[in-house]
């Protein structure tokens, strides 16, 4: 099986660490970025299959990153899962219309993340 790649984009080192552990348990090769600008550079160098994306970040926020990602050559391919404390329906709708595939509330755990990744079709859903 080909290795699966995920880019975790979050300005919180703790969140990146937690997400990395979950994703590595699911056999993903994981890369990290602390903000949208860093993430965009990464995607230009190597497009990941999945992006786990925070909303509020310095330098470039998640929504700006997402719109730029979707404009890149091949930038429509990655499945993007927004991870945020944002709970307002209109903000979530904005993320989805900007090109996010799924949305997960923080704090999340392995079970929630696995379910979302299964929904977007990048992992087998737990039977």
TrEMBL record:
Alphabetical UniProt keywords: Phosphoprotein
PTM annotation (4-aspartylphosphate): residues: 54
CDD domains, per the entry: REC_hyHK_CKI1_RcsC-like
PROSITE patterns: RESPONSE_REGULATORY
GO biological processes: phosphorelay signal transduction system
Pfam families cross-referenced by the UniProt entry: Response_reg (PF00072)
Keyword Phosphoprotein tagged: yes
Residue ranges of every copy of the Response regulatory domain listed in the record: 5-121
Top-level lineage group: Bacteria
PANTHER family associated with the record: RESPONSE REGULATORY DOMAIN-CONTAINING PROTEIN, STRESS RESPONSE REGULATOR PROTEIN 1
Protein name, UniProt field: Response regulator
């Amino acid at each position: 099986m080909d290795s699966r790649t995920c880019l975790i984009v979050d300005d919180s080192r703790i969140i990146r660490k937690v997400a990395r552990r979950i994703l590595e348990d699911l056999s993903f090769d994981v890369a990290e970025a602390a903000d949208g600008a860093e993430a965009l550079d990464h995607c230009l160098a190597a497009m990941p299959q999945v992006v786990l994306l925070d909303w509020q970040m310095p330098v470039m926020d998640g929504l700006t990153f997402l719109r730029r990602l979707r404009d890149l050559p091949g930038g429509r391919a990655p499945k993007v899962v927004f991870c945020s404390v944002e709970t307002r329906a209109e903000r979530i709708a904005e993320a989805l219309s900007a090109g996010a595939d799924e949305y997960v509330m923080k704090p999340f755990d392995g079970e929630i993340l696995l379910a979302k990744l299964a929904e977007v079709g990048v992992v087998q859903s737990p039977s």
